[in-house]
Design goal:
2 domains, 3-stranded antiparallel sheet, 3-stranded mixed sheet, globular
């Protein structure tokens, strides 16, 4: 595997771990040229349903977009990458278990909100304020009141 730092072609696996659920393998690698370490993940390739956007466009599912949404909402919050990965895996499992060829983007948004609510209330409110397009402070106040219950 090519080193992401110096593009050297030879890297060595220094540690391998299987996830708790056995869904993926985490490998720590070290570059033979610059000695920097990086992590790779090995997952089985599966076909996720196409995502139907609000405007009717259909796009392929991308784990990176989901991770980006989580990272943005959880920015500067005390949530580990392991917790984020687990939340994304739960969402992906739900998408696969639906057995559908297409899923509305709004369904994924609701799944993200459900996971964020479990992980961190502040991140949940951050995401919801953008996802639900809060118009004024009353919308924000209603969401905060919901979280307090």
């Amino acid at each position: 595997m090519k080193c992401p730092f110096c593009s050297h072609q030879e890297t060595q696996v220094v540690e391998t771990r299987v996830s708790e659920e056995g869904d993926f393998i985490r490998r720590r690698r070290q570059c033979g040229a610059c000695d920097k370490r990086f992590t790779t993940y090995e997952r089985p390739e599966v076909n996720f349903p196409a995502i139907v956007k609000k405007d009717g466009r259909r796009i392929e599912y991308e784990r990176g977009k989901l991770l980006g949404s989580f990272n943005l909402a959880l920015r500067k919050r005390p949530v580990s990458t392991t917790q984020i990965d687990s939340a994304i895996e739960r969402i992906e499992e739900k998408l696969l278990n639906l057995g559908q060829r297409e899923v509305l983007s709004s369904r994924i948004g609701e799944l993200v909100m459900r996971e964020l609510k479990k992980l961190d209330k502040i991140a949940y409110i951050r995401f919801a304020s953008v996802y639900r397009s809060f118009e004024d402070i009353d919308d924000f106040r209603a969401m905060v009141d919901e979280v307090r219950k």
